[in-house]
Amino acid sequence: MKILMLGWEFPPFFAGGVGIACYELTKALLEQYQDIEIDYVIPYWPKDSEERGKLHILNADSKKIEPRFHLKKIESTLYAYDSPESYAARVRDVLKKEGQDGSPKNIKQIYGENIFEEIYGYAEKVLNLCAKEHYDLIHAHDWTTFPAALMLKKMTGIPVVSHVHITELNKTGGMGGDSRVFEIENQGFAGSDIAIAVSHFMKEMLIHHYGVDPAKIRVVHNGGVTDLNVSLEKNRPFVGGEKVVLFAGRMTLQKGPEYFVRAAKKVLEYEQNVKFVIAGGGDKLASTIELAAQLGISKNVLFFGAFSRAEADRLNEMADVFVMPSVSEPFGIVPLDAIAKGTPTVISKQSGISEVLMHTFKVDFWDVDEIAHKILSLLRYEPLHTHMREQAMKDFERISWSKAARETVSVYHELAH
């Protein structure tokens, strides 16, 4: 089978979980199935190449993969986790660096005037690049790739799998969103032959909020990052026996950093020798820093900023507890990174990973009292801490990309027949 995959990010640039999921799934498919070939198409902005990092071919141990994997780059200003606002601000900034003003006229001469115009312009480029190739199916990851997938389907008749890692509703915590993004998502779900949801949590959202027919949805849970050095040994960076509680993720409403800080305040009322580390960047960073100051806990809350894969490993090694208080998380692979480094976790019930991760504390994202209680339990009681991290390692070994690849190929064959 020859698969056309359409995505919007690919490691090593550590933008988020979608890129990691695409990488791991692609690698697992190629490792397990010698008869699969994948063309992976991404938007690529040469002027931005330094920030993105060097794109690399999957070479996973084996040279058997390389001849069957082709990374195709199309020049475009699209970027991982772009929003209409971030797209406009970034393009204006680039024009300013080039000595031009950021007027709509200047933007339109070089780039899409807005993110939606750019998405459809990108779709045309995908069509020009791929229309003459033979593919058995198109596998599209998330809303920015849906127009390209549907245009190719209309021209060639090739079936489409839409892989739903996140939706506009998840990003906004169920509180509205951009109606134009909703429309593209709706068109993508309606036009695809099968939709892969990364969890039952996501499947229910597709059914009840997007009106997707349950008969065309298949649930395929993600795995964890496979290139981690798994270890239960802890590396303590602070003096005086300070404990470390970690939040790592994009600083957005969806990820719930506010609830992490409010829980930190409650923990510090009982245990003062604790550092709360917040790693990540995003639109909620400034307000989260202000909240820590308002609560009077700034000296105990450290803001790390954006981080790389290597830095993520180091942060998880130093942490005593990892917390993911997401408001609406389709899956959420970051707790698995923590578990691989011997760190027990507290995760929100409003997450897909809570369906498959058994040895963790599960809480409602809004219940900061309960979050604080679970953190304190893990910090104070060493036998509990040891039990949770050792048992969670069994979950880590069971939640695999090999299983995800098998289930994805089952979807491929279902469409092929």
Task: Name its key features.
16 helices; 7-stranded parallel beta sheet; 417 residues; Rossmann fold; alpha/beta; 6-stranded parallel beta sheet
Question: How would you summarize what this structure contains?
Answer:
With 417 residues, this protein is of the alpha/beta class.
- Percent of residues in beta strands: 15-25%
Helix percentage range = 40-55%
Q: Mean of residue pLDDT?
A: 87
What is the CATH C level class of the largest domain, in words?
A: Alpha Beta
Tally of individual helices: 16
Whole-number total of structural domains: 2
What is the string of SSEs from the N terminus onward?
A: EHEHEHHHEHEHHEHEEHEHEHEHEEHHH
Count of strand segments: 13
Unreliable spans: 49-55
- For the termini, the CA-CA separation is 12 Å
The CATH topology of the largest domain is given as Rossmann fold
Q: What structural class do helix, strand and pairing data support?
A: alpha/beta
Radius of gyration: 22 Å
**So, the CATH homologous superfamily of the largest domain?**
Glycogen Phosphorylase B
Q: Order of strands across the biggest sheet?
A: 3-2-1-4-5-6-7
The main pleated sheet reads as: 7 strands, parallel
Report the CATH architecture of the largest domain: 3-Layer(aba) Sandwich
From the spread of the alpha carbons, the general shape counts as: globular
What does it look like?
With 417 residues, the chain is α/β, with parallel strands linked by helices. It folds into two domains: 237 residues, Rossmann fold (3-Layer(aba) Sandwich); 156 residues, Glycogen Phosphorylase B (Rossmann fold, 3-Layer(aba) Sandwich). Helix content is 43%, strand content 16%. The chain has a seven-stranded parallel beta sheet with strand order 3-2-1-4-5-6-7, sandwiched between helices. β6, α9 and β7 form a beta-alpha-beta unit. The longest helix has 17 residues. About 2% of the residues have low confidence.
